[in-house]
Amino acid sequence: MSESSENGRRDFLKKGALGVTLAAWGQLVFSCSHSGHEHVAEEQGDIVKVLTPDGQLVEVDRSHLKHVHHVHPVTYEETREGVPGKKFVMVIDLARCTNARKCVSACQKMHHLPPDREWLTVKLMKDSEDGAPYWFPKTCFHCDNPPCVKVCPVDATFKRDDGLVLVDNTRCIGCKFCMTACPYSTRVFNWGEPGVPADMKTHFSSAESSIPGQVGTVEKCDFCPDMARMGKLPDCVTACPNGAFFFGDQNEDIVTNGSETFRFSELIAERSAYRYGEDLGTKPRVYYLPPAGRIEPAEKSLEEMPEERRKLYEDML
Amino acid sequence: MMKTAELNKKQTAILQALGAQLEKPGMLYRLWVALLLVLILAGTYGLYRQILIGHVVTGMRDNVVWGYYIANFIYFIGVSYGAAMLAAILYYFKVPWGRPIVRIAALVAFITGIIGPVFILLCIGRFDRLHYLFIHARVQSPITWDVMVISTYLVGITVFTYLLLIKDFAILRDTSLLELSSWRRKLYTALSLRYKGTDEQEGQIDHSTKSMAFIMVPKVILAFAVLSWIFGMTLRPSWNSTIFGPAYVISSVAAGIGLIIGLMWVYRRLYGLEEYITGLHFRNMAFILVILVAAFGYFTFSEYITNWYSSGKWESAVTAKVLSFKEFGWAFHLANLFAIVLPIVIIAIPRFRTPNIIALLSLLLVVAMWVRRYLTVVPPLETPLLPVQDARPEFVHYSATWVEWALVLAGAATFFIFFTLAPKLISVIPISDYDKETR
Ligand code: SF4
Ligand code: SF4
């Protein structure tokens, strides 16, 4: 797919039209294996439609689908420079977040993370004592003045021209200085051997895919740059049932959640978007639309939770 | 006869005292060494587990990513800088009462300067990539600055300490007063670098040592500054404060002096050095200590009262944590009692300025300063800006595991074993420094 900026917009728009299919299938890629494969699951008679890489819509049995992390092999220099001509940006509509946590699980699936490792977290927030609580999905903010990048002694975490802040886990020495420097507690550390599935161990590895994880190194939300390079949306964006995440390119001034597309500048102006912790001077690339007119009160999700989990949010209520 | 073999009365007396140091060790001594070795072995086993399994064996987790190791690192390296500063100043200005102290101080600086950085290595996730610090060095990072200052500092303090010892090695090589085994003579011969005490040689050594002492002072200030910036330059409340550096310097020098006083006391008792290490030495050191801890008390008070009085949300949260008796309150208040209040109050009373009391106060202070180092590192990390609602309580509250304890104790044991064995090689009191005494 061409990455030039004129085509980029059409890519995102096309994604919008294809919305439902893509949103549902995110990056389940058809792994064509009719026979002779070591592992053939039994057909369930559950037929689904998928789009092949060359643009054909085909019907296959669900049992033939395999989750493949599709990567575009990139050179080291490309991972350092970023996708040419882009300036990635994210807008999160807090009014739409119901703590469905589909973004969290999609992110974990995409990056082969165990259930207790969250690159993307959903916090319960309340801005003032008498205010109402609301859910707050938090990614890495890919700050334009990133304190984490400033302090890294070996250039393992770096800022690219397309706005992304990435970690090269083959370079990271695990000093954790970036973790103390990031005021948003974004980064996670591989304290032990990360439970990477066997077939992922030999996976093409670059700072763009962040897999497989490596013991003793730092990792974090990366805005799925390998997907972005292919003109696709990050998994959290497509997984959200409420379309709370919008991803796009600031240069083209466009953001989409897969089914709706907005002019970035208009959206943030109209909805009075803010960036979290603006006073820290980090210049985040993630904008939040204030949680006014929430589609569902935050308490609803709390009520449905098991008692134990609800306790964790007590000090916010 | 060579000059290094001609000794005056005083020097002969010191050599005889050294005889006591070299006596065959008794049972208690052996047990002590055995205990220290066990501690070091336990630490080594902990390290082996950590390398094998990863940092999961420690109590550190996301949020609190630095714990005992970093606390220990800044403690030891701070003590090292403090002791180096004291040794350099006492030597450079030829402070008359400093003579028996310079050597101990330099040795403290040397060994803690080696132990400290080991702990920062323990905190690094990937030992195998350590060389990246050089081949991929990024000058913008305070860690790179620290690598530069610590490595040059270590070279500096090693050279300075060695220069201070050469003359004594030569005396020991040439003396006929002590019966020394042949391996010892050989060792002293090698270490003394053919120093014979000619006027030219003496001039060279004195000049070099003095230059090194002169260089060490700005070197130490720079090293202190850079280390405190590692914390100061992050966006964390209570780290990101201008007073962090000065408070760290002052308290580290105090901890260093506390350790030196402790060693002075032990050596004096153990080897009967009352004639050389006198009450005057203890009193003078105690006065320096009181000035330093008073300044530290002032900085502490100033830091916490401003944070408490103003209502910045993040700062207040850390302050509340440190002061709350449900969290770090006991540790904080007891540490301040022993590190600040007690030394000032007790040393203010002339009657209490005895070596025993001063040594006891120093011991308490040395431990209390460690607690303050811990409180420097952990509470700000336990107070993230965003709420922690993850389902994992160990991610919020830090508590050290046996591996961390074992390694911290191994670090202390290394310090003690060094000072247990050092007097078996050299005289605690520098023999050569008494060469101008009347014959
Ligand atoms: S949110 Fe944290 S990790 Fe992400 S770019 Fe900003 S400072 Fe770095
Ligand atoms: S932990 Fe890794 S990415 Fe972070 S500052 Fe250290 S070397 Fe850089």
Report on the architecture of this protein.
The complex is a heterodimer of chains A (317) and B (439). With 317 residues, chain A is an alpha+beta fold. Chain A has a single domain (70-316), classed as Alpha-Beta Plaits, CATH 3.30.70. In chain A, 24% of the residues lie in helices and 18% in strands. Chain A has helices at 5-25, 76-81, 102-110, 147-151, 177-181, 225-229, 235-239, 264-270, 298-304, 307-311; strands at 28-30, 47-51, 57-61, 65-67, 88-93, 121-125, 134-138, 157-159, 165-167, 188-189, 218-219, 245-249, 254-256, 261-263, 286-289. In chain A, the strands form six sheets. Chain A has a five-stranded mixed sheet with strand order 14-13-12-5-15. A two-stranded antiparallel sheet of chain A has the order 1-4. A two-stranded antiparallel sheet of chain A has the order 2-3. Chain A starts with a helix and ends in a 6-residue tail after the last helix. In chain A, 44% of the residues are buried. The model of chain A is unreliable at 1-41 (pLDDT under 50). Chain B has one domain: Formate dehydrogenase/DMSO reductase fold, CATH 1.20.1630. Chain B is built from 14 helices and no strands. The radius of gyration of chain B is 23 Å and the shape is globular. The chains are: A alpha+beta (317), B mainly alpha (439). Chain A binds chain B through residues 116, 118, 121, 123-125, 138, 147, 150-156, 171-177, 179-181, 183-185, 187-193, 215-218, 277, 280, 282, 309, 312-313, 315-316, and chain B through 53-56, 58, 60-63, 65-66, 123-126, 129-130, 132-133, 136-138, 140-144, 147, 230, 233-236, 381, 384-392. The site of one iron/sulfur cluster has 14 residues of chain A, from α5.
